[in-house]
């Protein structure tokens, strides 16, 4: 196999973030090691990335963000708990004094710090980034943006009562800006699922809004000129195939091919 053929068949390595909690939260665990921690990840991300011919890898908080981005061809920042308001200038009075290892839905400073560092390291190296729900908000905060702490009730249901997977309800129709990555994937509109109570307020440096619901809530953001996309819904939990997941694999594959092409060029000089 030639170097060119080999480069075309190599699957891109894509890092997926998760959360950390104590084993005692798992039903039936042996109490003798219930106070030890485990790292948890939504396997739907890995499954869909693998289906799209990517190689999913799960990233622990202990995986140095800068070093791992030298190996990764793509990064997915996943959903979960709210970003700590201290990261974006919000009201810290809402923070409960609860160990995030015993309640994986309370604020987790260690996760915030890791994912913000990961976003910044990926952007610095030109590694494609997909931010999903909380991940979109992390992307925004990493670039200096702010968040809406709690969306008021309105004409669109953003915190859905539906169980995953689902393609969402008729009111949650997202409209995309022409010429954006999102519009290239979905066209003018897309019906999506939704499980969030916070949203982007002021965009971080360079980010632009490319998708909104009819009530004006920001549903997708991008960094023009870079392979960066944030979506407020959950593509891994759409009942139908969602092109967002194939997009991150394709963008990662293009970066990998470019890097391997450079290496091949250097080796034959």
Explained architecture:
There is one protein chain. With about 270 residues, the chain is α/β, with parallel strands linked by helices. The chain has a single domain, classed as Rossmann fold (3-Layer(aba) Sandwich), CATH 3.40.50.880. It has seven helices and 13 strands. A nine-stranded mixed β-sheet has the order 4-1-5-6-13-12-11-8-9, sandwiched between helices. Strands 2-3 form a two-stranded antiparallel sheet. A two-stranded antiparallel ribbon has the order 7-10. Strand 5, helix 4 and strand 6 form a beta-alpha-beta unit. Helix 1 runs antiparallel to helix 7.
What brief labels describe this structure?
19% strand, 29% helix, two-stranded antiparallel ribbon, 269 residues, Rossmann fold, disordered N terminus, alpha/beta
| Helix content range | 25-40%
Kindly provide the radius of gyration, computed on alpha-carbon positions and rounded to a whole number of angstroms.
Answer: 19 Å
The CATH architecture classification is 3-Layer(aba) Sandwich
The total number of structural domains is 1
Percent of residues in beta strands?
Answer: 15-25%
Element-by-element helix/strand order: HEEEHEHEHEHEEHEEEEEH
What's the arrangement of strands in the largest beta sheet? 4-1-5-6-13-12-11-8-9
| CATH fold description | Rossmann fold
Total helical elements: 7
The CATH homologous superfamily corresponds to Class I glutamine amidotransferase (GATase) domain
CATH class: Alpha Beta
Number of strands: 13
Unreliable stretches: 1-7
Major beta-sheet overview: 9 strands, mixed
